[in-house]
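Fold this sequence, please.
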Amino acid sequence: MHQQHHVAPDDGQLQPTRHAPASAGDPVLRAGPLQRSLRDRVSSAPRLVPPAIVLVIGYVGMVAVLVGVGALIVHSGALAGLRDWDDAVTRWMADHRNGVLDPVTGVLSRAADTTGVVAFALVVEIVLVVQRRWWALLIVPVALGLELTTFLTVNAIVDRPRPSVARLGSEPSTSSFPSGHTAATVVLWGAIALLFVWSSAHRWLRTAAVAVVLALAVFVGTARVYRGMHHPSDVIAGGLMGLAALSVTVLAVRLAARQAPVDDPRADGAAARSRGGVAAVPS
């Protein structure tokens, strides 16, 4: 029920466009304290500049940390024990290959390669389009792009040799550190959990989603070690890289969505007043 109220005329000026949540109905894009703090600090900047800065800083930070860790793993005498453990695990898995695990690990490995990840990502994007979650559409492709760029940079700089065991399947042209398959798995399935499960009111469902993502990362990482493509420490680094890439992307997309301009509803009332009309207000 609405009542019509005559409003006294004023100067007739429209309220300017304000910045507000463009996807206020999407719980994935609800800003936390960090996003709100950043939004307030950069409110006068062009809309896409702050998220771009977040992505660049995230990329540089991930590369710096991973290159440092990778260099220590490969060259530091203090981590000789870790290298010995890496070698022991890969040799043990190579010695225990069998006709059951060989095809299973092959399926897991292919599901996390470029073709498999892109296929799953396209399905996610189609669902988001159907749901009309426009800002959320950016999360998966941007996170995968950030992960891939970071992986290629770190991989080329660290240049760790792959394990000295026979490999199952074709060997990629890249080196061993970090595991890109594990990172892509964390990004893709972590994003799926975030986009479709994390807003659930059921805590057990959110916990189950985290457990599924963790299990998938472990399965894919183990499959890569089993097939002689990576050391265990490569897999751990890849999982952490994927988590970091997804976190940075979510921060950037939330920041972009929170800066999207929307019309101030007060402008409608101001426009009506400027025409000497009436504004409808809730009773």
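The chain has ten helices and four strands. The mean pLDDT is 84.
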